[in-house]
Amino acid sequence: MGEFKKNELAEKRGYSYRLTRRQFLVATSAAALAACGPAAVAPGATGSAAASPGKTLKIGQLLPFTGVYSELGNSMRRATELYLKLNDNKLANRPVQLIYEDDANVTATGIQKTQKFIDQDQVDVMMGVVPTPLAYGIRNAVHAAKMIFIDTNAGGNFLTRDVPNCTPACKSPYIFRASFSSYQISYPIGDYLSAKGTKDFFLAYANYGFGTESAADFTTGAKKNGGNITGNVAPPLGNADFAPFVTQIKNQPTKNVYSFFSGADAVGFIKTWNQLGLPAAGYKMYGAGFLTEQDVLKEVKDLANGAVTSLFWAVELDNPENKKFVADFQKQYPLLPDVFTVQQYDGMRALDEALKKLGGDTSDKDKFSKALEDVTFKSPRGDFAFDKSTHNPIQDIYLREVKTQNGQTVNTITDKIAKVTDPGK
Amino acid sequence: MSPELVFQQALNGLSFGALLFILAAGLSLVFGMMDVVNLAHGAFYMLGAYVALSVVQRTGSFWLAMVVAPLALAALGLVLEPLLLRRLRGRHLDQVLLTIGVSLVVVDQIGVVWGREVRSLAAPAGLDGSVALYGGDYPLYRLFVIGFGVALAALLSYVYSRTKVGMRIRAGVEDAEMLGALGVDTDRLFALTFAAGAALAGLAGVVAAPVFGLQPGMDLDALLYSLVVVVVGGLGTLGGAVAGSVLVGPADTFGKVVFQEFALAVIFAIVALVLLLKPTGLLGRIRIAR
């Protein structure tokens, strides 16, 4: 979108970000809105700390509570509070104070809030961050401050990789990721499908950093086994009308379409796909898992039937940890957990495990980082471990097909690709 | 591009244009009459869509929603104009700022009442299928949207040029003060105009919902596109809204698929060009500074 301007002052301070005109407009109006209400600060368990000698652990949570990703922020907040509730509001021996800040999906705002965590709140650990540009934007500030940051969503590859000149971002000893890298949800399915004999693909992806990254990783995977990409359409992110793009797909001969869309875009894409009669014309939909997560399925229902997607989790996943997690979640909230909940929940779990090893002592950040590196546990998604060299999780990737059974549209697990690791460069 | 593809994309563009017309007609009407660019127009559009969602959930009738949502928005407009805008009459910039405030409040309340998840609305029974056209099946609902847009343009044109209300609106656009001096109750006329503009935004929200869905942020998209349409077509005239939407709809559709990398740039290039060559818009009138 449009032109970008570098912010010199920001660069001097050790972080760089780019602000589009649209972001600026949203930022100024959001700032006006934010000025109306006090910041959301939720004290954790100050009351129940009697049994513990530990000092209060401050966790800064940078999440979107306004703007297009606000529902993700809510999901991740639910996960945080569920984890603490199940653990007596303590991690290891330390009572927890949560400090929530709203980035409103504006990179500049998120960077300011991160600086607040560092300078003013002096948090022990920071979590959250939904959009990849924001994760990239705060990378240098977090690294310089030696603040442990557990990324619980943003999936941009570069955050956990070796990158020349660290542009736009690169791995850091203090940054961990409890979610996924876009490679992990895109490359394996390309590799898998082409190895099984599906060779020709057409691409349809939201035209922004994460969408193009996913399409590129899928392409690499497909080409590994002699696959071929015959063309692409790339609607802008947050595109309203999908008919022009689906019409293009319908007027080309490649029947297998790999797509990267999420949320509202995914709903629009799948509905238009059906309205224009692509299933009847023999077209088949593949995609990264966000295409068919619960937020999308509950709106499109059986229109998504037959779509095959890859992700590191599904609510239907059959293992004891996931069964317990889903049950615990539903006891607390009147809805199903989503993938964002799992990411945040695992982030909390990883932090908890590391603190237990440290006896709750977070003063030495390098020891803290080392303790996190060694964390392994059984997560709702399967075995969870950080890759020691990148701090990205090593995790199983599941192939899921959308089916409607007894009136419920769900992702059924069809296969598993074990222990997928990001290449790290 | 094969001829079949061009034909189908042209239909996509025209149905998009028809939606843009329904959206922009209200914005243009309010500006023409009151000299206020109503930046809450996108929020009104969003509210219309969510009201429709509730009506369809309760009663199952899309057609009822198409009546209820515009009426609800009209009622809101009838309250807001005397309550807020009238107090700032003559201070156009302050009024515009006020409408930004209104839009923030409305959008936030929508989030509180309906939640911030992605929602969608099915096309009404009978229009949810598709028909065989040149180049393959085409969704019936999008054809309905084109027809509805044309019918609404015809209706509005009739009201403007053949009825007493239309006469007063045209007179008000020309010179509201003089109209007041001639004994017309301009307070009432302004309130009604603002309500009609809000109702049109609400109607656009209902008609667009089965195509675009409902989600946070839809208000800003709608506002942006409707501003583009009225700037290109010319502010304050019905013909301008028609010309703007007929041009911008197809231009956006073809632009997105032909110049994929510059998807959003095409319509803004048109805006820039029109502003350079004809600053009042294609069919806009020259306004005398007051």
Structure description:
The complex is a heterodimer of chains A (425) and B (290). Chain A is 39% helix and 22% strand. By secondary structure, chain A is an alpha/beta fold. In chain A, the strands form two sheets. In chain A, strands 8, 9, 10, 11, 12, 13, 14, 15 and 16 form a nine-stranded mixed sheet that branches. In chain A, strands 1, 2, 3, 4, 5, 6 and 7 form a seven-stranded mixed sheet that branches. In chain A, 56% of the residues are buried. With 290 residues, chain B is mainly α. Chain B is globular, with a radius of gyration of 19 Å. Chain B has a two-stranded antiparallel sheet. In chain B, helix 1 packs antiparallel against helix 7 (186-212). The interface between A and B is large, with 42 and 46 residues.
Distance linking N and C termini of chain A? 27 Å
Tally of structural domains of chain A: 2
Count of domain modules of chain B: 1
CATH architecture of the largest domain in chain A: 3-Layer(aba) Sandwich
Report the radius of gyration of chain B as a whole number of Å. 19 Å
Write down the CATH class of the largest domain in chain A.
Alpha Beta
On the 0 to 100 scale, the average pLDDT of chain B is 92
Mean pLDDT of chain A: 89
CATH homologous superfamily (4th level) name of the largest domain in chain A: Response regulator
Secondary structure tally, helices of chain B: 10
How large a portion of the residues of chain B is in β-strands, by DSSP E?
under 5%
- The percentage helix of chain B is over 70%
Strand order of the largest sheet of chain B: 1-2
CATH architecture of chain B: Orthogonal Bundle
Overall shape of chain A? globular
- How many strands, what sense, and barrel or not for the largest sheet of chain A? 9 strands, mixed
Which structural class do you get from the secondary structure elements of chain B?
mainly alpha
Oligomer type = heterodimer
- Biggest sheet features of chain B: 2 strands, antiparallel
CATH class of chain B: Mainly Alpha
